[in-house]
Write a structure and sequence with these properties.
The complex is a heterodimer of chains A (580) and B (188). Chain A is of the alpha+beta class and 580 residues long. Chain A is built from 16 helices and 26 strands. By secondary structure, chain B is mainly β. The chains are: A alpha+beta (580), B mainly beta (188).
Chain lengths: 580, 188
């Protein structure tokens, strides 16, 4: 994926570094998730983003002329060193440069992708050197800026202007030196959005089976190197058919690479033992297939045959036809963000007695004086950190359940901040403060009921719809135990499946969470309410938090990975357009 | 809701698809159709027959149904046309409250799915619908008859069940299909 634009000669040197982003430890789980989503037909969540750069009022470091600036792009994980992604070209004699070199990277919703941009003044003596080989410590440092990729993506015009800072001087001086500004523009490549629908058929296929006609199917692969092909799409097997027409194939241009990318379409005869025999193949591209459809001509299949040491292509009588070829542009998750849609984050925290006395260190709610966050705090921080970028007012509804507030009966949905009028708190820090406050003010009780919290969240989501809001709600429930009101919870979730709402459940502690898995439709059948209504889509994601503590992979990524597709399912089925 | 002025209202029901439909515990091969009717009203509508979806048929057909204001629910019945006649695959009851009332805007497009149950109340497949309430009273007569906006290639439209037996608002009987029924006595 990272090599998508390597054919762009001008950008080659700068883009060469994209593979570095895949070398970071996050790429493992993301690739798996990506394949999973591709398999399910969602391509919109992992968009290719093209960054372009300009700057203004850069510092003038050269004595006789203006600076000759270049941008170096880095990515930065949490507590990890910077990894260089790429470099732009050097612009001569300019303090307000606009660089031509673009940098392509993959946008992942479920991680906060921090980017660091450093601007250097390249000395004249290096001007004939390839930018990739320049030693940066020999160059004059003009300033650095940091942002998260999601901060750019949520901007209406997808561009963000940040002040450049000077590292060394900022430590010595309290007043930051004026180093100019850098503007980063992000564009989603159109190929991410375009999907091609094709209907393919063949005539005069040869007999391969001894006693019956062939059972043909097609595999479309892209040719990456002379002999290396990567399959990207497969049709169904049609039984006993010498003139097959397969069901429509959907292929995003991103999957193919580009419209001119060389493709191989192979026609196989299905064998139940898995050794399918090749009936014939065609080398083509999406652009050629489009022409083929236009001309209504068939393309002849050929079969490579070995003659001595040579391979010869035997041209067959069989022909491939394109009966339909149409392109459509589907709105992506990022289009909706740019179109003003927001994700609104809500939190509900389990205060049942099974968590243990919060004053004792073995309690799940124990607040360590050393500042080390407990499992609840970590879940809030990790999920909140990603989602907060998509919420403009950063005011989050926060509830608790399963506890007795001062002088009251057990409540299954109380405001975390202790107020009786408003349930919103300011920012992630506000949730943390309200959480610590609630621990002091309520006494833990039980049972564990999700129904009231989910219904409350659902009523907020429907209220916002009634007010014409362009919001999608994300409810995070953190719990230590098995839910008592499974049927009520199910009923509430089934009802909420018709609303712009997704529910993330994080299980902390060592309880048996088997019943939670039932709520997550990925792992079982579809959720059914007591009245016979069935959830119209999957809105629940459940993850036990203990898996994270042992492994390297952040559980939060797994939890959040499905959010964009749940969001898109909601928007697309209702034909809601982002109006960009 | 603001529909107090009307004695009835029209709802636009798009019968989207069915999932894992069975007869006698075997997946259905083809020829399924859906009848939607209001409990307590006289109006009903039917989709065309799906011929190539097997046990996961896709009808994608918009039906407009007139609902009396006092109606509390509508029923969705899935039938299958077989050699010997027409068999009921399963029924689902859709409470009106699932798509009206509450905070949601009146014209909200609801996506609703229901578990089907056959005449022995055994679980069968799932039916997927989308429902939107239409409020303009003047439009109602226009939609009295079924609007078949499906582009499905099926030519045959099945005779819609002609009589219904209801007692006290609960569905107890099933549409009578005339002579076709005789072959099916053991089942219906």
């Amino acid at each position: 994926m990272g090599n998508c634009c390597s054919d762009e000669a001008g950008g080659r040197s700068a883009v060469g570094g994209t593979s570095a982003s895949h070398a970071n430890p996050n790429s493992g789980p993301n690739d798996a998730v990506e394949r999973f989503l591709l398999y399910r037909g969602y391509q919109g969540c992992f968009s290719q983003i093209e960054l372009s750069f300009s700057a203004s009022s850069l510092r003038d470091r050269d004595v006789f002329s203006k600076s000759d600036p270049m941008v170096v792009i880095y990515t930065k994980g949490r507590d990890e060193p910077l990894i260089e992604l790429g470099r732009t070209e050097v612009i001569l004699n300019s303090v307000d440069p606009t660089w031509i070199t673009k940098h392509t990277l993959t946008y992942h919703f479920e991680v906060v992708q921090y980017l660091v941009f450093r601007v250097y003044d390249i000395d004249t003596q290096f001007h004939n050197v390839d930018v990739k080989t320049l030693k940066l410590d020999e160059q004059q440092f003009l300033g650095e800026a940091t942002c998260a990729l999601s901060q750019i993506m949520i901007k209406q015009d997808r561009s963000l202007t940040i002040d450049l800072m000077h590292r060394e001087e900022s430590t010595r001086e309290t007043r930051p030196r004026h180093c100019g500004k850098i503007t980063v523009r992000a564009e989603e490549s159109v190929s991410s959005k375009t999907t091609v629908e094709m209907i393919l058929s063949c005539i005069d296929l040869e007999y391969k089976d001894l006693f019956s006609r062939s059972d043909p199917f097609l595999v479309i692969s892209k040719v990456v190197d002379r002999d290396i092909t990567i399959p990207i799409c497969k049709t169904e097997v049609l039984k006993n058919e010498l003139k097959p027409q397969w069901k429509p194939i959907y292929l995003s241009i991103q999957q193919a690479g580009s419209k001119d990318q060389q493709l191989v379409i192979e026609c196989f005869n299905f064998n139940s033992n898995g050794k399918h025999d090749l009936i014939g193949k065609v080398e083509t591209s999406l652009a050629d297939l489009e022409k083929l459809q236009f001309s209504k001509q068939g393309e002849q299949l050929y079969l490579p045959t070995a003659v001595g040491h040579h391979h010869e292509n035997k041209v067959l009588k069989s022909r491939l036809f394109v009966d339909k070829f149409s392109e459509s542009v589907q709105h992506t998750f990022l289009d909706y963000l740019a179109g003003g849609f927001e994700l609104n984050f809500m939190v509900a925290i389990d205060f049942t007695a099974s968590n243990g006395n919060p004053r004792l260190p073995d309690s799940l709610h124990y607040i360590d004086p050393s500042g080390r966050p407990n499992a609840y705090q970590r879940a809030i921080i990790e999920v909140g950190e990603v989602v907060q970028f998509y919420d403009t007012d950063k005011r989050f509804p926060a509830w608790g359940f399963g506890a007795r507030p001062i002088d009251g009966p057990v409540s299954h949905c109380f405001y975390l901040n202790g107020s009786s009028h408003y349930y919103e708190v300011e920012g992630i820090q506000g949730i943390m403060t309200a959480y610590a406050g609630a621990l002091r003010n309520v006494s833990l009780a039980g049972p564990t009921l999700f129904g009231p919290v989910i219904s409350y969240a659902a009523s907020i989501a429907s209220q916002s719809l009634a007010d014409g809001g362009r919001k999608y709600y994300v409810l995070l429930i953190i719990t230590d135990g098995v839910v008592t009101d499974l049927q009520e919870t199910r009923d509430a979730i089934v009802k909420a499946s018709d609303l712009p709402l997704s529910i993330l459940i994080v299980g902390v502690g060592g309880a048996d969470f088997k019943e939670m898995e039932i709520l997550d439709a990925d792992k079982g059948g579809r959720l059914e309410s007591s009245s016979g209504r069935v959830a119209s889509r999957d809105i629940v994601q459940f993850v036990p938090f203990r898996d994270v503590q042992s492994g390297e992979i952040s559980v939060v990524q797994a939890l959040l990975a499905e959010l964009p597709s749940q969001f898109l399912t909601y928007m697309r089925t209702r034909d809601i357009k982002p109006n960009v | 809701m603001s529909n107090f002025n009307f004695s009835s209202r029209a709802v636009e029901i798009t019968v989207l698809s069915g999932e894992s439909l069975q007869i006698d515990r075997r997946p259905i091969k083809k020829n399924t159709f859906v009848v939607v009717r209001s409990i307590g009203g006289n109006d009903f509508c039917s989709t065309e027959i799906d011929t190539n979806g097997g046990s996961n048929p896709k009808w994608n057909q918009k039906l407009v149904l007139e609902l009396p204001v006092q109606a509390a629910a509508l029923t969705v019945e899935v039938y299958c046309k077989i050699m010997t006649g027409i068999r009921l695959v399963g029924t689902a009851t859709v409470p009106i409250s699932d798509f009206s009332g509450g905070y949601l805007p009146d014209n909200y497009l609801h996506f609703l799915s229901y578990r089907l149950r056959d005449e022995e109340s055994e679980r069968n497949g799932i039916i997927n619908l989308s429902v939107k309430t239409k409020f303009a009273a003047a439009e109602v007569p226009e939609y009295r008859s079924c609007v078949a906006s499906s582009s499905s290639s099926t030519a045959s439209v099945v005779g819609v069940p002609t009589s219904k037996k209801y007692s006290s608002g609960i569905v107890t009987g099933f549409p009578v299909f005339g002579p076709l029924l005789d072959h099916n006595n053991g089942i219906i």
